[in-house]
Write a structure and sequence with these properties.
By secondary structure, the chain is an alpha+beta fold. The protein is 27% helix and 32% strand.
């Protein structure tokens, strides 16, 4: 059968090569990502080693969330508080203020960790899950390697002083992505502004979330602050606004105020200097390609992943999206069979290539119909 190569350009967008250009963030290290496109909009020394401080608690929560999702842990399950956990509530660290012998639910411990940043709650959860905090830290590091966090090691569940507890803002970004993508129902805890612990032997204690961005009109819904004298101030933050999500990680802010101001500036930079273009949605019909000798003359195609591109408003160039295939594609065609390729080209350079699949089965027409169609093509050159 005669075949031809068709490239069908159906849409043109504006695109940019992003760079850490006209903004300076006053932090030792920082990174900003457009969540849906996955593109990095800003970076400053993103791979230097840091002490993640309380940003460590993101992984502590992830371990629990994974176990809950797999059915190996329940929110209403209770753990008995050890003396080790209790001592952290009496030594000046951020605490939930649990007591030795208390039986505290996993749900309360998680809120104590996420909202109140309780180091005592971290130890209690770690011991309840793994027996010891040391064993729990091994689980944390193993999960980090699974997520591609190659420059990270966890030595404890809270992030308090330990030179063997280290990471990078790039790795913290990977961890934050996993949290938001895999556990959206639990991620909502990170936006809660306060937590009340109805403690044993005393009046209930209400503590506010330490994330300063939750109290600004930015659309922030997480994630976690951190502080160590050796590292200074840090913050993993995310905003969800106008159909966009941005994630920023920064460490080495000189003051608590600077942490808030510079993180806000970084996220605002992403919102105001870039647009997000949705090229295709996973598993949704995207366009049509031609079919030869089929009961239908065309078939709808789809990608199996969402495709987004971030566009810099100040530096606009053409982004061309095309469908490439040898066609018309001869029937029969199976549903979900790969039939074409979606190509994304920027300034004559290929920047993305994605498989396209048939949205439905296309059966071949019978012999008489095929014969007539072939004669028609020979006479008129029309498929």
């Amino acid at each position: 059968m005669f075949k031809r190569l068709l490239i069908y350009t159906f849409i043109t967008f504006l695109f940019v090569e992003y760079a850490s250009a006209n903004i300076n963030i006053k932090a030792r290290t920082a990174i900003l990502q457009d969540y849906y496109s996955g593109e990095i909009l800003y970076k400053k020394e993103p791979d230097i080693s840091i002490y993640p401080a309380s940003m460590t608690k993101i992984m502590t929560a992830i371990i629990a969330f994974d176990l809950i999702k797999s059915g190996d842990l329940k929110l209403d399950e209770k753990f008995i508080i050890s003396e080790k956990a209790w001592r952290l509530s009496t030594s000046g660290y951020s605490s939930m203020f649990i007591m030795v012998g208390d039986e505290v639910s996993v749900e309360n411990l998680l809120r104590g960790i996420i909202v109140a940043s309780g180091n005592d709650a971290c130890v209690a959860l770690a011991e309840g899950i793994a027996g010891t905090e040391e064993e729990f830290a091994i689980l944390m590091t193993s999960k980090a390697k699974e997520l591609g966090m190659e420059d990270t090691n966890f030595a404890n569940s809270s992030g308090i002083n330990n030179p063997e507890n280290y990471s990078t803002v790039t790795d913290i970004l990977k961890m934050s992505n996993y949290l938001i993508k895999k556990h959206p129902e639990f991620y909502k805890m990170f936006s809660e502004k306060e937590f009340t612990w109805d403690r044993t032997g005393g009046e209930p204690i209400t503590q506010g979330n330490r994330n300063p961005l939750l109290y600004k009109n930015l659309g922030a819904d997480g994630i976690k602050t951190g502080y160590l004298a050796v590292e200074k101030y840090s913050l993993a933050s995310s905003i969800n606004k106008n159909g966009r999500r941005l994630i920023a990680i920064g460490s080495g802010f000189n003051t608590k105020k600077s942490r808030s101001v510079e993180s806000s500036k970084l996220l605002t930079y992403g919102l105001t200097n870039f647009d997000l273009v949705n090229i295709a949605n996973a598993n949704e019909p995207f366009n049509r390609i031609e079919v030869w000798l089929g009961k239908d003359n065309t078939v709808q195609v789809y990608t199996n992943e969402d495709i987004y591109k971030s566009i810099k408003k100040a530096k606009k160039k053409l982004l061309k999206v095309s469908i490439k295939y040898n066609g018309p594609v001869e029937a029969p065609i199976k549903k979900d069979e790969k039939v074409a390729i979606l190509k994304v080209v920027y300034d004559d350079e290929l920047v993305g290539e994605y498989d396209l699949f048939a949205h439905k089965e296309i059966k071949k027409i019978n012999f008489i119909s095929r014969l007539l169609k072939s004669i028609n093509y020979l006479v008129w050159g029309d498929v």
